[in-house]
Amino acid sequence: MNESTNPIRNAGFRMTGPRKAVFAAITNSPLSASEISQHLKQNDIPHDLATIYRNLELLVRLLLVSKVKFDDNVTRYERADMGHHHHIICDICGKVEDIPLNEDTLLASAISQTTFQIKRHSLEFFGLCKKCQL
Amino acid sequence: MNESTNPIRNAGFRMTGPRKAVFAAITNSPLSASEISQHLKQNDIPHDLATIYRNLELLVRLLLVSKVKFDDNVTRYERADMGHHHHIICDICGKVEDIPLNEDTLLASAISQTTFQIKRHSLEFFGLCKKCQL
DNA sequence: GACTTATTGCAAATGATTTGCAACAATAGC
DNA sequence: GCTATTGTTGCAAATCATTTGCAATAAGTC
Asked: Which residue in chain A has the smallest CA separation from B119?
């Protein structure tokens, strides 16, 4: 990855060791900040949780990483270049899979096309209400 | 509400003042524990946050109240007898509205039937993966 | 009305995330 | 390559939502 293709440096931010490590730790599967910390620990990469959080926030701002929220009160992060998609999470082992779904899909058919036994789902829309538009 | 129709007492739990107050504070619109606390404070009802949490947990177990999760890391609670539905939340003022949607609805058409300007949505499925199914 | 034990209030603990600040290190310019 | 500038880090402490321990209290039972 040379300078001209590095989106972090292109945006005017420094390419530091911890920053590189956090970015490299991000995968297709959503990981929490502490999971990323554990991952770095396993690879003997010294680091600090606060730095991980700060870098995740930066990567989100640069649209390189996306935040994902599940049922617990923990923020997870995954690569942002995977296109819009949704997740299916196992209540017992926590396994996460992507689920194929787009705006022209019926929820019912999306649900039936998985090997999971689905118990429930959560769907929230975010945007601006009439009053706050403008 | 007499004894025979009170689901809390029917389930063998005591009907206490704080419990009644928490249950009464639950509305059709999702509220956080601290919002419920503020509400009680405004009505000069002495209370404790821990008690609110404990009672919310009980009400959820009794299926009288449902948990709702939005984008932030705060759990909200709403009446459970409203049937399955979804929410649309204003990014600016936080206004919450229910959104009409069922399994036979196309996401696209649901999105177009609101006065909100929708920026994004979040959809997660929960259940058991193949391995954890028995 | 007295007894049993669920429930409360309060304080302290927990876990995720954020923040202040001085030491440090990545870059730009020389 | 050397130095100055200032973005970043590490560490500790602060915050916020939520949970837990425990003794005091009160709901429901007989």
From this structure: A127
